[in-house]
Queue: 3 jobs
Job 1
Amino acid sequence: MRTITLINGDGIGPEISDSVVKIIEASGLKIDWDIQTAGADVIDNEGVPLPDRVLESIKKNKIALKAPVTTPIGKGFRSVNVQLRKDLDLYANLRPCKNLPGVETRFKNVDLVVVRENTEDLYAGVEEQIDNDTAHSIKIITRKASERICRFAFDYAIKNNRHEVCVVTKANIMKLSDGLFLEVFREVAKEYSQINAREILVDNLCMQLVQDPTRFDVLVLPNLYGDIVSDLTAGLIGGLGVAQGANIGLDCAVFEPVHGSAPDIKGQNKANPTALLMSAIEMLKYIGEVAYAEKIEKALFKTLAEGFKTQDLGGNLSTTDFTAKIIENL
Ligand code: NAI
């Protein structure tokens, strides 16, 4: 039986994790979940929000499914999510974005993939208070990290029969940092002549995405733009409740939805488990359990197509009722 690390998270995390574990179990696939807690809830007992045991578990099992963990805004501890990605060198954040059956949206043929650099940029956490009225954040872009994420995007495009990779920067203004990312992209692109290489500035991208997202295929972006743009692309397919993601490194991979811990609906049995479930489906494909992944995906799509939805998608089902419908369709 395969052992997989499960981080239940906080906020809506435990509710959606519970749903996904039950659905996988109902599919007939046996997984030995190595449950690890992290975030504010463990600080009192363990002193830190991301104890070593969590990292050790993922290093040992190589694969984790992660529900969201709250990060205090403006003060408090550093993001568990950012730290996890950095400590495990999960350099590629992959966020596919495709219409789902039964989920009405403005655009019908959205099928694009956001490839976000996951380890540096303004998320490196290098900040300093200059004086009471001034603070600095340092944007770090390196050739090494830029090269491997651009290469990842092109390799992904080839493996998944995509035709284009578009690099997204603001290199007209940040000529050195974004300029380096763009320069490296151009060099890497030369090695992939079968894939079209395109360039766009991030502000223009946002405008074009909301006008017609079908103009885009694979996008590769530095960390901050990738974070923001992937929430925008989530909105194109029905919102954060359905947007899946994965953090991939050389040794380990952590699958997690795009959304956060949604404290506004915590404990109300309202959360949509689809984003975490879609992340888990990708995880199962990644570890070679393709038949089970497809079986679960089919049941999820059937449930949505039949009109059974949680409130974020305009439906009236609770998390547990939606979960029960998917299990019924399995
Ligand atoms: P959020 O993604 O948690 O919520 C934004 C809005 O989307 C809220 O109205 C929420 O109710 C809704 N939403 C999100 N997921 C949903 C779901 N599955 N079903 C139905 N509705 C859903 O973003 P917010 O409020 O900015 O962040 C809350 C916390 O989550 C913060 O502490 C943030 O740092 C953390 N966060 C954690 C992430 C992670 O663990 N990977 C990623 C993003 C944010």
Job 2
Amino acid sequence: MTDEARTLIEAARKAAQNAYAPYSNFAVGAAVLLSDGSIVTGANFENASYGLSLCAETVALASVSAQGRFADVVAIGVIGGRIGHADTDPISPCGRCRQVINEAAQVGGRDLSIYCSGATGDEVAEHKLSELLPHAFGPADLGLTGNRP
Ligand code: THU
């Protein structure tokens, strides 16, 4: 595992401790690495109206955008597991999150590295966004950026 992956997985695990997931009892944490080395985190944020729930990746990337740093995303770490269990299987970003991640990738012009792990353990799956979401539709299609990674 690279230092970058380890750092992001550790930050994502810490973030998952603040998951608001009383309905699924599945805690997810995301950690977004920016080009200056700083890390912005998020955790899933559920709602009694289940369909309104927000995934950890989306929460983290909305925070990055709110800080004016949406073009500076370099890599993302994502972890998840059932609350009260020591799940070790890596999770993978859901389809909606892949699309949200693609927005940052195209705005920043980078094919982002995505590091995935479980709630605990050393197993980490490393992907490029282009593997997780090939032939993506995004801001480049709307003429908003020429950066199609
Ligand atoms: N979840 C995420 O936060 N990210 C994903 O990529 C997959 C799913 C959350 C949504 C919900 O709060 C819980 O995990 C169970 O689906």
Job 3
Amino acid sequence: MSISYEKLMTSIEETALIGGWWYDIASDNLEWTSALRAIYEVEQDYEPRIESAITFYNEAYAEQIKDALQLTVTTGKAYKIKASITTAKGNVKWVFASGMANYEGNRLTATYGVFQDITADVIRAENLIKTNDITQITLDSLVEGVVVINAAGKITKFNQASENIFKYHRRDIIGKPIEILMPEPHRNHHQAYLANYHETKVANIVGIGREVIGLKSDGTSFPMHISINSIDGPSGQGFVGTIRDLTEEKQIKTQLDRLSHYDNLTGLPNRVSLINYLQKADSTKVITLIAINLHDFKKINLAYDFAEGDVVLKALAQRLTDFTGLHHFAAKDIADRFWLVIDHSYIKDLENCIIELMSFLKQAINGDKNRRHHISICMGVASSQNNDMLSNLITRAETALFSAKQKGINEICYFENLLAEQIISKYQIETDLRVALGEQALECWLQPKVNQDFKTIAAEVLVRWKGKDGQYIPPDEFIHIAEKTGLIMPLGAYVANKTAQMLAQINKLKPDFTLAMNVSPIQFLQANFAPKLVACFDSHQANLANLTIEITETLLIGDVKIVTDTINELGRYGIRISIDDFGTGHSNLKRIIDMPIFELKIDKQFVNNCLIDKKSEHLLSAIVSMSKVMDYSIVAEGVESLEIAKHCINLGVDILQGYYFGKAEPYRSFVKKHVENVHAVELVSQ
Ligand code: C2E
Ligand code: CA
Ligand code: CA
């Protein structure tokens, strides 16, 4: 709530001796205005509860109020009860307590009410009794204003409540025409209405209540509820009007509306208002929603206090308001989340507009005591062009914001691009890979594996895809897509075929040379994986005993039976099983021990870091000592320097692989470099 608004409300309340309350049914939260606290004579930090509020009522009224309130909560029926209370300071006061229901759509969400201190009026009525004017006493004891007019339309009775409402003293108004209480244009037409009624006896207003505008002695008009009944008087037919001033009720309703639609701290519209705004937006126009988040806002609260955090949030809200002007719509959500709806009719270029917004918002903010806060911001942007998208624009902007936060600070992410980029590139890779497989655009490169004497005794087969532009696409970019789309099957078959071809050729030159081939879990778990592989190698007369299959630890947490059966079957042909990336997965050592595993390949992250990071070094040496006991062959992959190579050998690693000894390269050049008898190169075409 803005400061000026709050001031206005408080002064209205204080002048009229009126307080307001609001009870939120869902949260069981009761709020009192400060004027209400003053009536009850409780401290301003007093926290009201429904049960304790009832105890202020004097005995005769407590039950009545309780029942009425219960009825409002359950049925929405409004009440207005005159009652007496004993304040916190022990003073007895007379009040009018009212309760009404607040609906959101069809749902009753809260009750609220007005509480008026009428002690002075009651005392006055008591005094009047002493003067014996019973009619006047009766009229004055009514909460509603009562105005009686005679057949000529002149005022004959004007009760105490009417005096309060219209700000006239009885003695000044008795005998005056009723039109005096009506603003134009009603005033002009009233005589004609009255004449018509006397003639036809037909009137819209008699017998029913309605809301009209009244006029006070000071010329101000106000909303009031009036119900009129005709009476037969000594000089013909007159009318009794019962009047209720709706000013405060309306103001409090507006005020409470405001509370539920605006952010308390910054005065910006809240999330409810944002949703309303988006629901009412013109669905034929483009709308862009930006979710804005402060980075590390919590730090400000923690480093200083919440008041300092509030200063920052208010400053940011002010900047957003300045940026918004009359054209866009800014809102504040919970915590440090802000929203901005951009109306495209007022901007030329969305991207520019957002970049401007970013640089405007992220300027340092002056806090209390000359502190300066250098803030960082992330934004998620989502646009819509039709109704369907409008409904989940908030979710889209939030998704984009999430991506922006993942990227870092002062980042902007666009939902459309995000989604489109992901879908397009995945789809593109899938279709291109399909074509590449058909055109044999995949190549199998070899990376050397050396023994403790640094002699190349084996190689790992690593697939490469030559893109249309001649650039090689690394396997990390397409293997997972091949796995998801099933393309891993033809890809795996292609690699197996090439591996068999290469192994057969190399073994003619070096009979003990082995090749290691990566096999994805999807391939491995396929029925007939082993027989097919065996058939493929047989067709090239390749020695299966010189083949190593690299599988990952994840495979070992799956269905044990199938995995064990396949490993055993492969073992019968002399095929060796290597556990790749060892140390990164959820190793189940027990399972590894139970299976005929030949080799553990320690993941490159531990090898790379073994000289600089104690944890990696310990892990490396622990794995090596364990493997020695278990008789596994140990491979260290990712060896990038001589120091690391020596360190690994000192620990007892058997085989080394890494850039220090050579990157993966095409078959021809690999054989030239790493295998003797160079003429063998011609035998395999790539
Ligand atoms: P991987 O099996 O762990 O293969 C080792 C990766 O580490 C290779 O990347 C290799 O080039 C890289 N590397 C080797 N030495 C070093 C080094 O000293 N330092 C660093 N930083 N990296 C080194 P590449 O070729 O990009 O392969 C990535 C992954 O793609 C492989 O990881 C493997 O999981 C998968 N992959 C490759 N070829 C195939 C295949 O034919 N079939 C299947 N299913 N997956 C494959
Ligand atoms: Ca591997
Ligand atoms: Ca690896």
